[in-house]
Write a structure and sequence with these properties.
The chain has 283 residues and is of the alpha+beta class. Among the domains are: 140 residues, Ribbon (Umud Fragment, subunit A); 57 residues, lambda repressor-like DNA-binding domains (434 Repressor (Amino-terminal Domain)). Helix content is 18%, strand content 26%. It contains seven helices and 15 strands. It is elongated, with a radius of gyration of 20 Å.
């Protein structure tokens, strides 16, 4: 597997996956590094308190200072050594800017990254015991096969955004927090992996490549690669360029493949899912 910059940067680094695959990563502002990104089954569990603190980019020592809770107690709460209750979380709410309910139900509550909901019908069929969707701390990947009909698989979990409900694969991706923070300049709760199809962005992104998207970056500035909704509500990757002299502001939607035409729309008509940070490529 290889990571390549969407902007065809020459900066690239080889990684080794646990199963012997070689990966290479480079993106906007991503320099050589020795981190590993791999798709794996759930590892050590963290609670919503950990991810709420990470989303605020706050150190554990700083949260201890602001909340008055001891560092040992905070560690136990973040690492699921104590079963979280709302009264545990009240001291942290003001410091983190989230309600106790948001922290307790992190990832499944509006305002805590992508809003992911379980399929109640499927949960009942499974008896409510089988885990659905990515574990906490994993970056979700959209399931482009789900709910398509004619061979598509049932959606087990969905990510809701406005009027859209995008199916999520049961396993997510694990990336080191330092890689997300220092190289992607984002947070785990904002990231989404999208599997691309079609040849409109070749040679930058080939059909079947996955891209990591920052869903918190919804303004097309600076110019670059973004995940957007097409006419049918599907998510596609395109290069966006603001026409800053136009009033109202308009945007060029550019395909890197010269065989696909460039479009132009008003910014108000464009639905941006997020900014593409890097691409995951298989060889």
């Amino acid at each position: 597997m290889r990571y390549r910059s969407p902007n065809n940067s020459d900066s690239q680094v080889t990684f080794r996956e646990a199963r012997g695959l070689e990966a290479l990563a480079a993106a906007n502002r991503i320099s050589d590094n020795g981190f590993m990104a791999r798709k794996t089954k759930p590892g050590p569990q963290h609670t919503g308190l950990y991810y709420a603190r990470e989303a605020r980019r706050m150190s554990r020592s700083e949260l201890v200072r602001r909340s008055g809770v001891s560092k040992q107690q905070l560690s136990r709460l973040e690492n699921a050594q104590i079963r979280l209750r709302l009264d545990h979380l009240k001291p942290f709410a003001d410091a983190l800017g989230y309600t106790p309910e948001q922290i307790l139900l992190w990832g499944r509550y509006p305002g805590t990254g992508g809003h992911i909901e379980s399929s109640d019908v499927l949960r009942e069929e499974l008896g409510g015991d089988e885990p659905l969707g990515p574990a906490p701390g994993q970056v979700p990947e959209l399931d482009t096969r789900a709910g398509l009909g004619g061979g598509g698989v049932p959606a087990r979990e969905v990510r809701k955004e406005g009027r859209h409900a995008d199916p999520i694969k049961p396993e997510g991706w694990l990336f080191p927090s330092s890689f997300v923070r220092e190289q992607l300049h984002s947070s785990l709760t904002r990231l989404l992996v999208v599997d691309t199809t079609g040849d409109s962005m070749t040679p930058t992104i080939d059909s079947g490549d996955r891209v990591i998207v920052d869903t918190g970056h919804k303004t097309p500035s600076p110019d670059g690669l973004y995940a957007i909704r097409d006419t049918f509500g599907s998510i596609v990757v395109k290069r966006l360029q603001l026409i800053r002299s136009s009033r109202p502001t308009r945007v060029k939607i550019i395909s890197d493949n010269a065989n696909h035409p460039t479009e132009e729309v008003a910014l108000s008509e464009l639905e941006i899912v997020g900014k593409v940070l890097c691409a995951l490529k298989l060889f």
